[in-house]
Amino acid sequence: MRNDIDKILLSSEIEQSPQNISDSGLTDVLVRLKDGKEYTASFFTFENISKTVVRHKKNGKDLYGKYFWFQNMFLIDDCSRSNIELVVNELLEKGDFWGVFEEV
């Protein structure tokens, strides 16, 4: 399935300088397949979610951190391009891609 990918775009590469990409802990991922169809999901690091819950407990958001959700959310250990490419390829090979990504 790896050869089905035409391009992977990360919102973090557009919004930040390259040296801080994996530091943000979140990025939207757009995968364009060779058939022209595009799919999207939001990748969050475990650390980003942990910090977000702590922040919400203080500021009252989401019932003071009792829950957190985001459409098409996928958790990952780091948001570097190389790691995301590895994971996207794995999801495609296993067939799980279609459960994580939503067609645009």
Topology:
Layout: E1 5-10, H1 11-15, E2 26-33, E3 38-45, H2 46-59, H3 61-65, E4 73-76, H4 81-94, H5 97-100, E5 102-103
Task: Summarize the structure in short.
This protein has 104 residues and is an alpha+beta fold.
Descriptive report:
- This protein has 104 residues and is α+β, with helices and mostly antiparallel strands.
- It has one domain (2-103).
- The chain is built from 5 helices and 5 strands, in the order βαββααβααβ.
- It has helices at 11-15, 46-59, 61-65, 81-94, 97-100; strands at residues 5-10, 26-33, 38-45, 73-76, 102-103.
- Strands 1, 2, 3, 4 and 5 form a 5-stranded mixed sheet that branches.
- The mean pLDDT is 90.
- Largest sheet: number of strands, sense, barrel closure: 5 strands, mixed
Rounded mean pLDDT score: 90
Query: Number of helix segments?
Result: 5
Beta-strand portion reads 25-35%
Which value, in Å, is the CA radius of gyration?
A: 15 Å
Number of structurally distinct domains: 1
**Extended strand count:** 5
Determine the N-to-C terminus distance.
Answer: 20 Å
Low-confidence stretches: none
Q: Roughly how much helix do the residues carry, as a percent range?
A: 40-55%
Structural class: alpha+beta
